[in-house]
Amino acid sequence: MSTVEHPPGAPHTPTGAEFIEAQQSPQFQDLKRTLRRFVFPMTAFFLIWYAVYVLLGAFAHDFMAISVWGNINVGIILGLLQFVTTFLITGLYVRFANRDLDPKSEAIRNELESEVRP
């Protein structure tokens, strides 16, 4: 426990040692695993999707130039889908963070800030 006096009702300010202890806790390791379970596959998906778009633009000119409707071609549609994908991934991450990450991180924070530590 810290030797620093806190006003009544103020959260405990964790020490460096307490932060290191929290990082090594099973709860924090679970939080990291949960984050990685979403971030790594989603990052790989988006990078592959973007690379396919760039490679099609560089090497499949005829395919990208196929007219879909008026002056709208496959290249424009795929380019706009890059934006759609970005917003979709952002929305999925926000939902994932609210549902899976925030409760776990809040529990860790509450434990660190509590005056009485187990």
Describe the protein's architecture and organization:
The chain is mostly helical and 118 residues long. It has one domain. It contains four helices and two strands; from the N terminus they run H-H-H-E-E-H. Strands 1-2 form a two-stranded antiparallel sheet. Strand 1 (67-69) and strand 2 form a beta hairpin. The longest helix has 40 residues, at 74-113. It is elongated and about 70 Å long. The model has no long low-confidence stretch (mean pLDDT 89).
Radius of gyration: 23 Å
Query: Helix/strand-derived class?
Result: mainly alpha
Portion of residues in beta strands equals under 5%
| Helix-strand topology string | HHHEEH
The overall average pLDDT, rounded, is 89
Keywords: Membrane, Transmembrane, Transmembrane helix
InterPro entries: DUF485
Organism: Gordonia soli NBRC 108243
Transmembrane segments: 38-60, 72-94
Can you lay out the helices and strands and say which pair or pack?
Blueprint: H1 16-23, H2 26-59, H3 61-64, E1 67-69, E2 72-73, H4 74-113
Antiparallel strand pairs: 1-2
Helix pairs in contact: 2-4
Pick out its properties.
118 residues, mainly alpha, two-stranded antiparallel ribbon
Q: Could you give a short description of this structure?
A:
73% of the residues lie in helices and 4% in strands. It has 118 residues and is mainly alpha-helical. It has one domain (16-113).
